Every structure is written in C-alpha cells, then in structure tokens.
Amino acid sequence: MTAAPTSLETDLMAMKEAARSAIAAAATLDELEQLRIGYLGKKGQLSKVLGGMGKLSAEERPRIGALANEVKELIQTQLDQGKSALETARIKAQLATETLDVTMPGIFQPQGRIHPINSIIDRIVDIFVGLGYTVADGPEIETDYYNFEALNFLPDHPARDMQDTLYLPNGHLMRTHTSNTQIRYMQANEPPLRAVAIGRCYRRDTVDATHAAVFHQIEFFAVDTDITFTDLRGTIKVFLEALYGEIPVRFRPSFFPFTEPSAEVDVEWQGKWLEVLGCGMIDPNVLKSVGYDPEIYSGFAAGLGVERLAMVQHQIDDIRRLYTSDLRFLRQF
Ligand code: DAH
C-alpha cells in the first residue's frame, strides 16, 4: 500500500533478477514448482506487486503493466527451460545407470516335444474317430475273466502261454492286451457299435529289438447285423493308408481264441516283414459271453502294436530306443 510508483518498477526489476538466479540454482523439479508458486502463483510475488497498480497514475499504469507482463513471461520461460533441462538430465542419468543391451542373447527355454509313442497314438485315434469310432477305456489291472476267459481262452489252452502273463498276489493280472476292453465295452453297450481302446499292456516277454515287457496297443472293433471280413480288410487298408500312405502290406492267416477266422498283418520294416496287428471276425463264443446273439450279430476286431507302428513310421531299428530317454534320439521327433 505504501509502495511508491517508482518503487513498483524497482520491485519488478529486483524480482526479475532474483527469479533468474533462483531458477538457475534449482536442482529438482520440485524446487522449480515451489519457485513458480512463489513468483507466479495466486498469492505470489507478482500478484502482490500488481496489487499496488491501483495507486499508479494513469500514464504510469500501462508502462508498469507492460513491464509486469514482460517479467512474468520471462520468469515463465525460465521455469520452462529449467524444467526441460532437469528432465533431460534425469533421463540421461537413468540411461547411464540402467543399461539395457538389446543385442544380448536371450535366456534359453528348452522346448518339450511329444514322444513318438504319444504322437502316433494321437494320429491313430484321430483316424478312427474320423471313421466314426468311440474311444473306450479299460483297466490295466484285470481279472482272468476279462483278459482270457470271456475272450474264449480255455483254462489250460496253450494260447495263454503265448502271453506269458504277469500275475498279482491277489490272483489278478496285468492285462496282456487291450482286448479286455472289447468285453467290457460290449457288456456295457448294445450293437451297432464301433469303438477304439488305447493303452499299456504287460507281458513276461524276453526283451529284444521288437519286444518289450511293457508296450502299448490300440484295439478297434465293430459289431452290427451284417459285418463281414471284407469290412475288416477295408478298414485296415484305409487305416494303414491314412497312417503311412502307400506301403507294402501282407495279410497272413493266424489263430486267436477270440476271433474266427483270424489274421495277422505285416508291413515292411528294415527290408523285412514286421507283424503290426492281429485281427479277425469276433468268435461267436465271445459274442455269447457278452449276451449278443451270434445268429443276429457279427463283428470284427483288431489289436495294433503301437511301438511297432512307430518303428515302421520312423524306421527305428530297436524298440528299446523308445524307452531309454536318450535326448539325442528323442530330439529327432
Ligand atoms: N490281442 C491280440 C494280441 O495281443 C491282438 C489281437 C488279435 C486283437 C486279434 C484283436 C484281434 O482284437 O481280433 O496278440
């Protein structure tokens, strides 16, 4: 209130100088903000000076007003410059401490692969599902009834010896084939039916290049009112072509207690024939054992050796390679 008109001008000039050095000395964005409030804020120094303008004479007012504006803009410009200088310095400092080398090699993440046994199982199941088959499931620990008796193996029949079975102390056994699932599925369902069963099988076999004590089979079977051997042959042909394309295939007459007639199918492997599946027309005694009338229904069945099909597909020379977990071998698939 007491300030004389000339003293306003002096105040503005002094403020300009003080602001310049204070802004130049500010080391943080926070300090700059405090300076802005102190000089240009609503209750800041500039508005205090302008508060005294009312006392000025009519000729002095525009001149001091213009000077006040000039000082205000100058301070604002210096604040902006100080702010961008501090921001640049902050980014530079951050870049200097947080070095990120984008050319550095990444951290190696080993990729898993599908085991050749599982991948061929997936392909085979896809083929049968495409032909309208349902996936059926059966237990690995089985009773003599489902593994043998219902499949028409008589108690002392030599066909049992061919499967050199592993028995459990309670009289149950490790299933020797997936044919147990035929019986279980047919008991639970009425014809017409088409099903495929996949799983592990166990035999007290001597292990060699083409035999393992634990191996996988896929069983497929169909029952309807007029199924013939031609349907079986056609299905096997379509299946093997879907899996391998054109490949030499041989049907051989054979014997299984649960099929009549029976056949074995060989495909070419390492310049020789390798048996990959057994098949036949379901024996009337088996149909009777699940309560189907063999005068009305007929059916076919087949059991495939999964390891052997994989050996043919990938030209693997020894079944044991599939189980030794040798990464050099497994990485090829
Ligand atoms: N269960 C037979 C075996 O493991 C394979 C087999 C043969 C299955 C003929 C069948 C079949 O369904 O009809 O040696």
Automatic annotation (TrEMBL):
Tell me the CDD domains matching this sequence.
PheRS_alpha_core
**Compartments where located:** Cytoplasm
* One GO term (biological process): phenylalanyl-tRNA aminoacylation
Q: What coarse category fits the chief subcellular location reported for this protein?
A: cytoplasm
- Looking at the Swiss-Prot or TrEMBL record, what is one Pfam family this protein matches? Phe_tRNA-synt_N
Q: Name one GO molecular function term.
A: tRNA binding
Report the residue ranges that make up the Aminoacyl-transfer RNA synthetases class-II family profile domain in this protein: 118-332
GO-annotated cellular components: cytoplasm
Q: InterPro entries recorded for this chain?
A: aa-tRNA-synth_II, aa-tRNA-synth_II/BPL/LPL, Phe-tRNA-synth_IIc_asu, Phe-tRNA_ligase_II_N, Phe_tRNA_ligase_alpha1_bac, Phenylalanyl-tRNA_Synthase, tRNA-bd_arm
Q: Which NCBIfam families does the UniProt entry name for this protein?
A: pheS (TIGR00468)
* Subunit structure as annotated in this protein's UniProt entry: Tetramer of two alpha and two beta subunits.
Q: What is this protein called?
A: Phenylalanine--tRNA ligase alpha subunit
Q: Which gene encodes it?
A: pheS
